[in-house]
Amino acid sequence: xxxxxxxxxxxxxxxxxxxxxxxxxxxxxxxxxxxxxxxxxxxxxxxxxxxxxxxxxxxxxxxxxxxxxxxxxxxxxxxxxxxxxxxxxxxxxxxxxxxxxxxxxxxxxxxxxxxxxxxxxxxxxxxxxxxxxxxxxxxxxxxxxxxxxxxxxxxxxxxxxxxxxxxxxxxxxxxxxxxxxxxxxxxxxxxxxxxxxxxxxxxxxxxxxxxxxxxxxxxxxxxxxxxxxxxxxxxxxxxxxxxxxxxx
Amino acid sequence: xxxxxxxxxxxxxxxxxxxxxxxxxxxxxxxxxxxxxxxxxxxxxxxxxxxxxxxxxxxxxxxxxxxxxxxxxxxxxxxxxxxxxxxxxxxxxxxxxxxxxxxxxxxxxxxxxxxxxxxxxxxxxxxxxxxxxxxxxxxxxxxxxxxxxxxxxxxxxxxxxxxxxxxxxxxxxxxxxxxxxxxxxxxxxxxxxxxxxxxxxxxxxxxxxxxxxxxxxxxxxxxxxxxxxxxxxxxxxxxxxxxxxxxx
Amino acid sequence: xxxxxxxxxxxxxxxxxxxxxxxxxxxxxxxxxxxxxxxxxxxxxxxxxxxxxxxxxxxxxxxxxxxxxxxxxxxxxxxxxxxxxxxxxxxxxxxxxxxxxxxxxxxxxxxxxxxxxxxxxxxxxxxxxxxxxxxxxxxxxxxxxxxxxxxxxxxxxxxxxxxxxxxxxxxxxxxxxxxxxxxxxxxxxxxxxxxxxxxxxxxxxxxxxxxxxxxxxxxxxxxxxxxxxxxxxxxxxxxxxxxxxxxxxxxxxxxxxxxxxxxxxxxxxxxxxxxxxxxxxxxxxxxxxxxxxxxxxxxxxxxxxx
Amino acid sequence: xxxxxxxxxxxxxxxxxxxxxxxxxxxxxxxxxxxxxxxxxxxxxxxxxxxxxxxxxxxxxxxxxxxxxxxxxxxxxxxxxxxxxxxxxxxxxxxxxxxxxxxxxxxxxxxxxxxxxxxxxxxxxxxxxxxxxxxxxxxxxxxxxxxxxxxxxxxxxxxxxxxxxxxxxxxxxxxxxxxxxxxxxxxxxxxxxxxxxxxxxxxxxxxxxxxxxxxxxxxxxxxxxxxxxxxxxxxxxxxxxxxxxxxxxxxxxxxxxxxxxxxxxxxxxxxxxxxxxxxxxxxxxxxxxxxxxxxxxxxxxxxxxx
Lengths: 248, 248, 306, 306
Ligand SMILES: Cc1cc2nc3c(=O)[nH]c(=O)nc-3n(C[C@H](O)[C@H](O)[C@H](O)COP(=O)(O)OP(=O)(O)OC[C@H]3O[C@@H](n4cnc5c(N)ncnc54)[C@H](O)[C@@H]3O)c2cc1C
Ligand SMILES: Cc1cc2nc3c(=O)[nH]c(=O)nc-3n(C[C@H](O)[C@H](O)[C@H](O)COP(=O)(O)OP(=O)(O)OC[C@H]3O[C@@H](n4cnc5c(N)ncnc54)[C@H](O)[C@@H]3O)c2cc1C
Ligand SMILES: Cc1cc2nc3c(=O)[nH]c(=O)nc-3n(C[C@H](O)[C@H](O)[C@H](O)COP(=O)(O)O)c2cc1C
Ligand SMILES: Cc1cc2nc3c(=O)[nH]c(=O)nc-3n(C[C@H](O)[C@H](O)[C@H](O)COP(=O)(O)O)c2cc1C
Ligand code: FES
Ligand code: FES
Hints:
The complex is a heterotetramer, with two copies of chain A (248 residues) and two copies of chain C (306 residues). By secondary structure, chain A is α/β, with parallel strands linked by helices.
């Protein structure tokens, strides 16, 4: 079982003009990914772009792995242009995922924007919880059908076009005030992550947050992806991408 | 009418595992190419590979241009992987082609290997002549059906698998000794081109030979593609690629 | 929206010029680019007498770049003035002549003859100084000082630009030297000496063995050097090296360039220069920038220390 | 077929090593590469005490390359010897420790404590010399001379390698200096100082502003420098800079390298090192080369003059 493998692209599905799902079938046996872990995909066979790109495992089952990707720059654009049947050079699953053993009815999961890609598989794993999902507009909220089977789904948008107008952090604050919350799992933009972390600390609630940092090796060798923490520099690719709020 | 245009790939046809035809439809009006002229195609939208690649006009008609390409390295491999419908960034027609006004029944055309790509359109233009076509083996001789309508087709292969065993220069020598030859048009590997040039000089026969040199700009600006001649450095992209034997 | 920039006393309608040696004498690209749209046209390096340059092969592609060993091939000063300059004079665009010589006297004569006839003269100091054993002016501070001091006396009307070589260990102090000796501007970077070998034939890819690396590969090196020079001098900087699009051009300007030159990009995209001008305008609109000069040196930075 | 090469008194079963800082302490890649298959493992630069390095962001991609400003982050000598070296000792592969210091004394102490414990010590001289106002040892010839002379006295058992910086104006004469002061080998090139700016935020892409450029983009510069050094010294050269595949490795060897180091390529292809070893074998078979050492300096060249 190797964490370096080639996989065949069997499905590409557009969810908006900028968002797509890639479904891959590894051509050899690879370890099962855990929610919150990620893979490095090589977007091109040439040297431009040069580096692999990190993507969270979105969904996995029966020998397929799926990624939910937003077109951002060179690498994601090339990935979006791949044709079915193409073989992709992959590494993964990498990093520390979410600790599943503490998931309970008193857990809250929070996703901001593309953070959904990282927590979606957590929600498939355990549905009896509250999920707060925020985005700029309703067009940037995805998978609402699939998410309807959760105990409770709270959507927030910046423009109020779906759910409440506001942001995920305010929504989380409200839930914490109203309900018993013992653990929070979050993934979103840097600013949201910081705020969630502060909020949980002030309420002494256990929390796990997934962070992003630019990566080269993905295996802890290059020291490129570090995050400054009170305990010193931590590598997002190996000590993370999911960090306990206690570490932050 | 611009010599810089985008064209849509409407057909890709493999003639061997290494040789393919690309048929393109320019999306705007472009000048008619002359036999022996070439185009610069951009093999990638990224910067690796960076430079455009030169290819002779193989055939053109009713708003389509066609190239016959051998897979050699990075650029030609990428071109070979293009999907139908892809839009390609092209420049051309560029350079000086063959002088068609001196083509006659006493003309001989010589192609070695991929030289066929450069002289094929000449042969479509005028068929009442002798064509000497050489390659390593019969597998490297292409378009024999189309070429059968010429006045006379002489094939030579290094291994004798088609036509005479031998090379194009020896075949040309024989023809010159046996027939009245007033002009020769040739394209082949550097060694063949040199030998043909020497042969024609020694027989004082008018000749036009198409040369290759690595190119960057294709329009005479970079001075990268020069060929050393008795009259100094000549740019293959603008003074050539077809040179009169007198200039060499 | 103001796109006008000034380099010495040369006024350019926008900051985009061509890089010497990549745009011929202008005519070669006039079919693909409206020369009137350019900030300036910089022509291939001119020497006193015509030169043949190096034997082929002269170019080879490398990852995101290319090597060239064109050498000094050019038509010579006479032919330039008679055959090439009149064509460029038909356009309302400043002409910059890049010049090269074997010794200080060559440069002096070139400057004397060109002064006032063209808007600017760019000294290519990467050439070997034949009188001093072939060491390049670019790394021999004494020779460089003498060179600039002497040509400065000959250049009375045109703008004097010194083109710096990235080979320098300390590009900032070299630029200070140029400023002190009276250069009106510096341009950088020239190509980086480099080499490629064909492993199948064991032969160098270039007949001349060593060539100059240009293209996107060198952009981060050029941006760094422009930034270092911007910290050191007050004269304007013409930034170049791997500029392929408007974003690259703006990157150079944020690092400190007043104007930018487009080189290898012309080969990839013959309308690169005008595409970049349009792209800069879009950027200015998007960021509500009314004067292009606001961008120069506009990088926001502080270094956090550990 | 002989693939064995010698660097000083370190014997390598093949010429392929890892480049410092790109392979962690070996363990990180042991899942993807059989460490026993490598010519040598070169670890991340070690300092006397642990260091935090620069703040993030520390890396950014550039055309065919990347910038890094990791800085000096490492576990420190103690932890290296106790926690990292024992793991590497489980393999039958020489260990090279890249070292860095703030002053000559740091290097001396590092060498004293490492000598004999590892097969080779590689001096990273691109660091600022804090006692001399922060000028890098790499461009201060006097400081470099002193440094090598002094550490040479401390390194009695291990092989002493000096890692050269491409910033040098004259890499050949620097390598001659290293040879004279007693270096057993030189390795080159280190990364090239470079910079990138995010034009939307106007902020530098790296928190440290300047980082080191590595990857395919710099290969032609590295090959040129190795060739220049090969003309100047007799000690073996370890070539690196943008080696992505066997063809690149052989290019460096033809230019004069006895051994090669693979850096950025590990990130792109975690099995790059072993793929390169296999590719070198194929090349040797195809060209009927029985001893890898025949390739070193095997470029065929003459310069035609005009
Ligand atoms: C652990 C992890 C998981 C991720 N999961 C997902 C996911 O599931 N879906 C998704 O769409 N995106 C995800 N991202 C972000 C994604 O990696 C970037 O959007 C992508 O690399 C951008 O590449 P590009 O070439 O299109 O953009 P460019 O801007 O051209 O990229 C240039 C460079 O910046 C890096 N980069 C740019 N943005 C980011 C970013 N936000 N994080 C890290 N590196 C970045 C790229 O890797 C590349 O090296 C994840 C990032 C990390 C670190
Ligand atoms: C005027 C002209 C017309 C040509 N017509 C044809 C044609 O019709 N069909 C065809 O298959 N080939 C033709 N060629 C050759 C073709 O351009 C090269 O085979 C092609 O550029 C190789 O690119 P690559 O990236 O696959 O190879 P690589 O080896 O990866 O190319 C590396 C670099 O070398 C250059 N290069 C490599 N081989 C040649 C060559 N023989 N001539 C010029 N540059 C080269 C490439 O352009 C590129 O810059 C022609 C060349 C010229 C100059
Ligand atoms: C083919 C070619 C020829 C060049 N000739 C000259 C020259 O004659 N004089 C000069 O100062 N620079 C010359 N240069 C350097 C360019 O002007 C420019 O400094 C360099 O290429 C970096 O810019 P780029 O990466 O945009 O090409 C030449 C570059 C190339 C590619
Ligand atoms: C992330 C990273 C960290 C590096 N750290 C070091 C180091 O600690 N010491 C050192 O001498 N070189 C260091 N280098 C330089 C490499 O060892 C090598 O010289 C350079 O990257 C060129 O090779 P490449 O293009 O194959 O990567 C580092 C390079 C990278 C990319
Ligand atoms: S990406 Fe290299 S250490 Fe994390
Ligand atoms: S390719 Fe530039 S002059 Fe011919």
